Every structure is written in structure tokens, then in C-alpha cells.
């Protein structure tokens, strides 16, 4: 009878038996590689994920509970490793994109000086819908989804229309002796086409219009053709040239350039760090009716007029994530962390708070406050941090179960005590997706309290005489369950 997966792992750990680990790999490598390939879509990256997964298996060979299903464990770890690789690749691509754009920006000053005198004539040569699409995409930095919704097409159709319009603009400039590629033209437009208006202009125009309304009664302030253009394209910009304002019988001509809402001085720049406290969906806290929460920090960046964001869950995960779509139409802020997670909020008048809603299957309120001292997530523990040592009852790796029977949750707790009475700890739920959950530790011999920082549960127990076992209870949602933790590094 062949050895089980757990027997092979035990023999590998005790005897450093290469044949045992090779057999484990042979049994499961196809499953792991296939799962990785489906998620990362790259044979090279899939191999990297598979190698990382089996490396973790080797490192944790001594930690498996008797009822662990190795196939399920490998599948779950593969998923986490694949997610990490996808995020890393996204960050790399973002850095390369920004570097490329910054390199292109070095040439935009000369290009812009040649394009600027011709731009409005070139824009006028486009048909109305193409012109609106270019304005929305590169003058207002709208997403393709927003452009499509505004002009009444799909994202893909909007992209094709924009590409076609950019090519027509490029041809227009080329015929007049200005040679520039499509990518370079896009960078130049995004960086230069809309400049901040004088700070007092908006207030002055408003005051003038209000005065005119009072003096002229029903006089037309804006030509009818302009109103039709604004209605047909749904542009939220001031797009009036040579507006005739009738004031007490005197004709005054005011020349206004197109003003992008995200660039106007009257609207606040939201770059920087923003911090709030978010609920953790479907996870209860220690007390009855309490919800687990995590501090969340977002850092907003702006490149070539477009915003991006990086987020970090301080109390639940050591991994950062990036916004895949960001829209700022003052005072509205909206971004997506992935296909299913969205934040939408409103910037207050003081530009120091964003009141909004986070949506992930369900929705809950999230208030973000501007900060210059954002919280930082704990540095993940390494094996050397929690290696068992003399003089510390708690430092080491502990393994056990929370609850009993079919509802028992298998966990590993890693505790470091860098100095007497100072602790760092992490909880791994080995039967679920939660890994490296930060914990706070209180030890008054023999009493031990381990609280998940997000308050998604708490262990209270007693240490035995030789510091090899902690027996107690697990508290969550106002309920209690038996819990026991034993040293896994004896």
C-alpha cells in the first residue's frame, strides 16, 4: 500500500528523504501548475507560482494536522501565490508605464510649442462625436467606461473611436510639418491641453453672470449653438469662446479656454495619504454584535493629470493592492480595487475628508481622512524572528484548533519576543484564506491572551508548566469555543 501524502511529508521532514518529497511533487504538480496557469496566464509565471507553492510545502512539512488534505492545502496556497504574482506584475507594469510616460514628458515641451497653435483647428476638423471623445479622454482624463457611457457606446467602441480620432489629429499635424507619434501626441495632450485657470476667474465669471442676469432679465448669456454643443456632448466643462455678456447695454467679450474640472485651481488636489477604518465583511468581532474592522490606508498619486491609488489593509494583510480604475470629478472620488471592490465618496469643502461607501458584494460606510502620518502594517515575521529560544515561554510556533468537531478551525500562531515582555504575533488560519493576521499578546504567567488586531476573535488560556501547551477558549461573536495550542517546534 502506497504512503499517504501526510506520511510522505512526515518521512521527508524526519529523514530529509528526497524521494518522499519527489513523490508528493509528482502527485500534485499537474494540479498546482494548471491552477496557477489559469490565474496568471503566463507559463513562465505559472512555473514560478508552482515552485513557490512546493517550497512552502517543504517549509511547513512538520506543521500539518492529521486531518489535513494536502491537495486542498496546495490548491489554496497556489491561489495565494498566484494573487501575489499578479499584484507584483501589476506594480511592475505600472512602474514601467510611469517611467515611459515620464521619459515621453521630457520631449513634450518642444512638441507642445509646435502643436499648441494648431490644436484647436485640428480639434475643429474632427466630427462632433470624435471631438467629444477626445475631450473626455485626454482633456478630462475620463475612463473608457465613462467616455462610452457619455457618448452612448461600449468601452471597446469608445476606444476604437478615440484611437481613430488621435490618428486623424496626428495626420493633421503631420501635414503641417509637425511630426509626432500617436503615443507622444496622447502624452502631450494629457499634459498640456488643459492648464489651471486663474484662481479668481470662476468667482469673477459667476459674479458677472449673476449681475448680468439681474440687469438684463431674459437676455441670452450664452449663444444657442454653444448650449446645443454642451447638451449633445454632455461635457461638464466651460467650452465657450467669445461669450457675449450683455451688461447694462455694454457688450463685453470674455475669452475662456476649455477648463478641465480635475485641473482647476478651485478644485483640491487629493494626492497624499488617506486613512480610515473599514468593516471586514461577514466577519464578527469578539463581542456579540461587534464587527471585525481594519485600518485602511490609501495613497493617491497623480501622473500626467491622471490619478492612481495604492491601498493597504493595516490589520489584516501584509499585501498592498492597486486601484485598477480611478476617477476624480470634484468633489466625487471613485476607484476600483478589483472587479468586485469599489469605493465611491465625496470630498468635503475642507478637502480633508472623503465620506463614501465601500462595496464588495455588500456595502458599508467608509470615511477617509487626509493624514501626514499614515499607519503602517506590521512587518511580516520571518522564521528567525520566532525560532524558539531559552528565556521566553511564548516565542515559537504554536499549532492547534479553535472549536471542536466538524466546526474546528486549524490554526498556526507565530510569536516573537524580541525583548522581555514585548511581543509580535501572527495567526494563520490553515483551513481558510486568512494568513499572517496580526495579533497582540498579553502574558501574565500563566495567563495568555492573544487578540487578533482586527478583533476577529480572541484566545484566552493558561500556559502549562513546561511552556509547551496553552489551553483555553476562543471568543468570537459573543460566543465561546474550546481552544488548545501546542508547540510545533519542540
Fill in the keyword field for this structure.
30% strand, Arc Repressor Mutant, subunit A, 12 helices, 490 residues, 38% helix, 19 strands, Rna Polymerase Sigma Factor, Chain: A, 5 domains, elongated, nine-stranded antiparallel sheet, alpha+beta
Mean pLDDT: 79
**Helical segment tally?**
12
Distance between the termini: 31 Å
Strand content: 25-35%
CATH class of the largest domain: Mainly Beta
Give the helices and strands, then pairings.
Layout: H1 5-15, H2 18-40, H3 43-59, H4 70-105, H5 108-125, H6 128-139, H7 144-151, H8 155-175, H9 182-192, H10 201-216, H11 224-233, E1 243-247, E2 250-254, E3 272-284, E4 291-303, E5 306-313, E6 320-322, E7 325-329, E8 332-338, E9 341-347, E10 353-360, E11 362-371, H12 383-386, E12 396-402, E13 409-419, E14 422-429, E15 437-444, E16 447-452, E17 458-463, E18 469-476, E19 479-487
Antiparallel strand pairs: 1-2, 3-4, 3-11, 4-5, 5-6, 7-8, 8-9, 9-10, 10-11, 12-13, 12-19, 13-14, 14-15, 15-16, 16-17, 17-18, 18-19
Helix pairs in contact: 1-2, 2-3, 2-4, 3-4, 5-9, 6-7, 6-8, 7-8
Describe this structure in words.
The chain has 490 residues and is α+β, with helices and mostly antiparallel strands. It folds into five domains: 5-104, Rna Polymerase Sigma Factor, Chain: A (Orthogonal Bundle), CATH 1.10.1740.10; 105-192, Arc Repressor Mutant, subunit A; 201-254, no CATH class; 272-371, Lipocalin (Beta Barrel), CATH 2.40.128; 383-487, Beta Barrel (Lipocalin). The protein has twelve helices and 19 strands. The protein has a nine-stranded antiparallel beta sheet with strand order 6-5-4-3-11-10-9-8-7, covered by helices on one side. Strand 12 (396-402) and strand 13 form a beta hairpin. The two termini are 31 Å apart.
Amino acid at each position: 500500500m502506497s504512503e499517504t501524502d501526510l506520511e510522505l511529508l512526515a518521512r521527508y521532514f524526519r529523514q530529509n528523504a528526497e524521494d518522499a518529497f519527489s513523490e508528493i511533487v509528482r502527485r500534485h504538480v499537474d494540479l498546482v501548475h494548471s491552477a496557477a496557469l489559469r490565474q496568471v496566464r503566463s507559463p513562465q509565471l505559472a512555473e514560478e507560482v508552482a515552485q513557490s507553492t512546493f517550497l512552502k510545502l517543504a517549509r511547513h512539512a512538520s506543521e500539518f494536522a492529521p486531518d489535513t488534505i494536502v491537495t486542498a492545502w496546495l490548491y489554496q496556497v497556489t491561489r495565494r501565490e498566484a494573487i501575489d504574482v499578479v499584484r507584483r506584475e501589476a506594480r511592475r507594469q505600472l512602474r514601467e508605464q510611469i517611467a515611459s510616460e515620464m521619459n515621453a514628458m521630457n520631449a513634450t515641451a518642444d512638441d507642445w510649442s509646435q502643436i499648441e497653435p494648431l490644436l484647436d483647428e485640428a480639434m475643429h476638423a474632427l466630427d462632433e462625436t470624435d471631438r467629444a471623445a477626445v475631450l473626455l479622454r485626454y482633456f478630462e482624463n475620463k475612463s473608457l467606461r465613462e467616455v462610452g457611457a457619455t457618448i452612448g457606446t461600449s468601452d471597446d467602441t469608445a476606444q476604437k473611436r478615440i484611437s481613430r480620432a488621435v490618428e486623424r489629429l496626428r495626420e493633421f499635424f503631420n501635414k503641417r510639418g509637425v511630426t509626432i507619434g500617436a503615443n507622444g501626441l496622447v502624452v502631450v495632450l494629457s499634459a498640456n491641453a488643459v492648464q489651471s485657470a486663474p484662481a479668481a476667474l470662476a468667482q469673477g465669471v459667476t459674479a458677472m453672470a449673476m449681475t448680468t442676469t439681474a440687469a438684463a432679465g431674459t437676455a441670452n448669456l450664452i449663444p444657442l449653438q454653444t448650449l446645443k454643443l454642451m447638451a449633445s456632448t454632455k461635457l461638464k466643462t466651460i467650452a465657450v469662446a467669445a461669450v457675449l455678456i450683455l451688461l447694462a447695454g455694454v457688450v463685453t467679450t470674455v475669452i475662456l479656454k476649455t477648463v478641465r474640472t480635475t485641473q482647476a485651481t478651485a478644485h483640491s488636489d487629493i494626492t497624499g495619504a488617506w486613512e480610515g477604518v473599514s468593516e471586514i465583511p461577514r466577519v464578527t468581532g469578539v463581542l456579540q454584535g461587534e464587527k471585525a474592522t481594519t485600518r485602511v490606508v490609501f495613497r493617491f498619486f497623480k501622473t500626467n493629470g491622471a490619478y492612481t491609488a495604492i491601498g493597504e489593509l493595516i490589520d489584516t494583510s501584509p499585501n498592498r493592492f492597486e486601484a485598477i480604475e480611478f476617477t476624480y470629478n470634484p468633489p466625487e472620488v471613485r476607484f476600483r480595487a478589483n472587479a468586485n471592490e469599489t469605493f465611491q465618496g465625496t470630498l468635503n469643502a475642507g478637502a480633508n475628508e472623503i465620506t463614501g461607501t465601500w462595496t464588495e458584494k455588500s456595502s458599508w460606510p467608509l470615511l477617509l481622512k487626509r493624514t501626514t502620518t499614515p499607519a503602517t502594517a506590521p512587518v511580516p515575521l520571518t522564521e528567525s524572528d520566532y525560532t524558539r529560544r531559552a528565556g521566553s515561554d511564548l516565542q515559537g510556533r504554536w499549532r492547534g484548533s479553535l472549536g471542536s468537531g466538524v466546526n474546528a478551525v486549524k490554526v498556526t500562531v507565530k510569536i516573537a519576543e524580541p525583548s522581555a515582555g514585548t511581543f509580535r504575533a501572527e495567526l494563520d488560519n490553515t483551513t481558510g484564506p486568512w494568513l499572517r493576521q496580526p495579533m497582540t499578546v498579553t502574558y501574565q504567567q500563566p495567563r495568555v491572551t492573544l487578540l487578533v488586531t482586527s478583533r476577529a476573535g480572541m484566545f484566552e488560556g493558561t500556559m502549562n508548566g513546561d511552556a509547551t501547551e496553552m489551553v483555553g477558549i476562543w471568543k468570537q461573536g459573543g460566543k465561546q469555543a474550546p481552544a488548545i495550542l501546542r508547540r510545533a517546534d519542540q
